[in-house]
Design goal:
Blueprint: H1 2-26, H2 31-55, H3 62-87, H4 101-124, H5 137-152, H6 160-165, H7 176-186, H8 192-220, H9 224-229, H10 242-246, H11 251-272, H12 276-296, H13 299-317, H14 329-351, H15 356-359, H16 369-377, E1 386-387, H17 389-404, H18 409-427, H19 431-437, H20 444-477, H21 483-503, E2 507-509, E3 515-518, H22 519-530, H23 539-551, E4 557-560, H24 569-573, H25 590-599, H26 607-616, E5 618-623, H27 645-648, E6 657-663, E7 666-671
Parallel strand pairs: 1-3, 4-5
Antiparallel strand pairs: 2-3, 5-7, 6-7
Helix pairs in contact: 1-2, 1-3, 1-7, 1-8, 2-3, 2-7, 2-8, 2-11, 2-12, 3-7, 4-8, 5-7, 7-8, 8-11, 11-12, 11-13, 12-13, 13-14, 13-18, 16-18, 17-18, 17-20, 18-19, 18-20, 20-21, 25-26
Length: about 675
């Protein structure tokens, strides 16, 4: 099965890179840069095409959507090439790789290698097989959305609720990740869990490292050591990307953040471009990338905006390649005006009626300000317990460096804002919390991830500076030693510290509830726990569901108790369950749900229950864990025994139900017609 996962990763990469590469080439982007930013463009086309096909009432397979997307991008590339030939500008490129392309490819290979090594230790080895999945609450929704796209053959992000609730209501849901994942799943017998795991590897090992590689090449230019050291930190922070994988899961938010460099690079290049036509092309590419960011998760667009505003303020004072700022009154006034306009836009969006459900959402404070500060500075975030002291040191070194070389100070300001937002969110309540953190749902997990994301370039700067300083010190201590030996020894010492602080086994019990461990060691253990087939929906229960699906009519509605693990079974296996999340509301609304949950066992004597069952055309009842069993594998999230007595009390003696299948404490009953 690991070979199948490798094929799924390859398919995911093809889906992300082939269409987008062709579209980028249509805008005269050079080959290396086009390859890097391709995923943002592909996700944009996939998602917009999915909406268009829905509005045209056209259903499609995943492969069909992939073919149409690739065809559109191919036509765009060929049409643009013909147009450039007619105009005599066929070889002109508006976004070129910094420096030599071969050197850039070597640097990119280093980023990919380091990311693959970290992802293998942190994700691939701990998961319980290529088809395992995380037993997280939000995962029920994400896998169900992907499955619903496959079931309906439509991929509109504007009509996602109709898939989940099977009713005509519809609303926008940021489903850019879900569309591409559905396309890949369709190529592997609709195996949603396999495609989801392939997406994690593809984005963590390929998409984000390549994006950060080109971004750091653009930001730091010819500072080769800084760019190379950036490879160590791209996927090294617990807060991002790993926090989104072990909490939630927040796949959409993870991908949204990972697309930010792909939209930011053409934006920064548009500022530097000399020709108006190039500025227009790059602005268009950046806009498409930003839309792709928002299509995955809108708060990524605000994260992008923070970087953009601060970069533009910095750019007002610093010309390309200049280390000395131009502090003329005109430039200071321009910077103040830009920052004021950004603050005004923030206020307008905060007060906008359509944003109120987001900005007024509240995550209650859980830590004191002092503990919150300690958790943020150690890159632990919340109470996860995975500290990263080496990263704390290198980020601090990077901040000090930016204070000395103010050309990069904007990076520290962005990080400081994100850290402040995290601290306010996790340790305070009130209006200011919503103003500063509301666009991220005041969710300290997302804000901590943003802080970790903004810290990556700072870590690269700090490590590079520390490496240079240590090399100088060793030269003083070991007089007469060669510069190469000192450089190698310095690098080796820092790499050993990095690896030890990230992967050192074991933990220290800080309190009865909190164990401190090396950051990625902690993440690794959490991945292993969440992706285990021994938890909640076990391997035996999943096999039982597969057997059920081979025996009952396709699409038959099955009443279930979601807390026994069956809340994941629709997304993972495709069985048509009534409850698809560990919550009290089923697909047909609160009233029907309550009757089903509390009175289904009375179907033989209650006309009301019989009426609801007939209207739903419910055919079966699934119980993966009998309530009398001593070895139940369940989740207690939103579960109260009294809310489910109408289903859990059903047994072989209950009138109106016939036992069809049983294995250990798992049961399938048919509802007598």
């Amino acid at each position: 099965m690991w070979f199948t996962l490798a094929l799924a990763i390859l398919a995911y990469a093809i889906a992300l890179y082939v269409p987008g590469f062709m579209l980028a080439r249509a805008f005269s982007i050079d080959r290396f840069a086009a390859a890097v930013i391709a995923p943002a463009l592909s996700i944009f086309v996939f998602t917009v095409l999915g909406v268009a096909l829905f509005e045209l009432d056209v259903a499609s397979s995943g492969f069909g959507l992939l073919t149409m997307t690739a065809g559109i991008c191919l036509i765009a590339m060929l049409g643009a090439r013909c147009l450039r030939k007619v105009r005599g500008v066929d070889n002109r490129e508006c976004l070129a790789t910094v420096g030599d392309t071969k050197e850039a490819c070597k640097t990119a290979a280093l980023y990919l290698t380091v990311a693959f090594a970290i992802a293998t230790l942190t994700f691939l080895l701990p998961i319980d097989g290529p088809e395992s999945f995380s037993r997280n609450d939000d995962t029920t929704v994400h896998l169900s959305v992907v499955r619903s796209f496959l079931d309906t053959g439509t991929y509109s992000t504007l009509h996602v609720s109709s898939y989940l609730a099977q009713n005509p209501d519809s609303w926008y849901y940021p489903a850019g990740w879900h569309v591409v994942t559905a396309v890949v799943a369709s190529l592997f017998d609709n195996n949603v869990a396999l495609a989801a795991n392939a997406s994690v590897v593809t984005f963590v090992v390929i998409v984000f490292p390549l994006g950060m590689c080109l971004l750091l090449l653009k930001i730091f230019g010819q500072h080769k050591r800084t760019v190379l050291t950036g490879s160590l930190f791209t996927v090294a922070f617990c807060g991002f990307p790993w926090g989104f994988i072990v909490f939630g899961q927040l796949f959409s938010n993870m991908v949204s953040f990972m697309l930010i460099p792909l939209a930011f690079i053409p934006f920064a290049e548009a500022i530097e471009a000399k020709r108006a036509s190039d500025k227009l092309k790059l602005a268009a590419i950046s806009t498409v990338g930003l839309v792709a960011v928002a299509l995955c998760q809108p708060n990524g667009a605000f994260t992008f905006g923070i970087w953009v505003v601060l970069y533009c303020v910095n750019r007002i004072f610093y010309a390309p390649g200049s280390e000395q700022p131009n502090l003329s009154r005109k430039r200071i006034a321009g910077a103040v005006a830009l920052f004021t306009a950004a603050c005004a836009a923030w206020a307008i969006l905060y007060l906008a009626p359509f944003m109120q459900t987001v900005v007024q959402y509240t995550w209650e404070a859980t830590l004191s300000p002092a503990v919150a500060l300690a958790s943020g500075l150690s890159f632990m975030f919340t109470s996860r317990g995975g500290v990263q002291p080496f990263l704390s040191v290198v980020v601090l070194a990077g901040i000090i460096y930016t204070c000395r070389s103010k050309r990069y100070l904007w990076l520290s300001v962005a990080y400081a804002f994100a850290l402040l937002s995290y601290l306010v969110s996790i340790s305070t309540d009130g209006v200011f919390k919503h103003v500063i953190a509301g666009f991220w749902y005041t969710d300290y997990h997302r804000l901590g991830a943003m802080a970790a994301f903004f810290a990556i370039p700072l870590a690269a700067l700090g490590f590079s500076w520390m490496l240079k300083t240590l090399k100088t010190w060793l030269g003083i201590v070991f007089k007469g030693s060669s510069a190469d030996m000192n450089a190698g020894l310095s690098l080796g010492m820092l790499l050993i510290l990095f690896a030890a602080c990230q992967f050192l086994p074991g933990n220290v019990k800080l309190t009865e509830k909190v164990d401190l461990a090396a950051g990625l060691t902690k993440i690794r253990s959490e991945v292993a726990a969440r992706y285990s087939w021994d938890r909640i929906l076990t391997g035996e229960e999943d096999a039982f569901i597969k057997e059920i699906m081979s025996q009952i009519p396709e699409g038959a509605l099955v009443i279930n108790v979601p807390s026994d693990g069956s809340c994941w079974s629709y997304g993972v296996e495709g069985i048509n369950t009534y409850f698809r999340r560990s919550a009290n509301t089923g697909m047909s609304g609160a009233e029907d749900s309550k009757i089903i949950r509390t009175q289904l066992c009375d179907i033989d004597t209650s006309d009301e229950v019989r009426s609801v069952v007939n209207r739903l055309d419910a055919r079966y009842v699934l119980l993966l864990d009998e309530i009398t069993s001593n070895d139940r594998t369940t989740t207690g999230m939103r579960y109260k025994k009294e809310n489910w007595e109408g289903i859990e009390s059903i047994d072989e003696k209950t009138p109106g139900f016939t036992l069809l299948m049983s294995e250990e404490n798992m049961r399938l009953y048919e509802i007598d017609r």
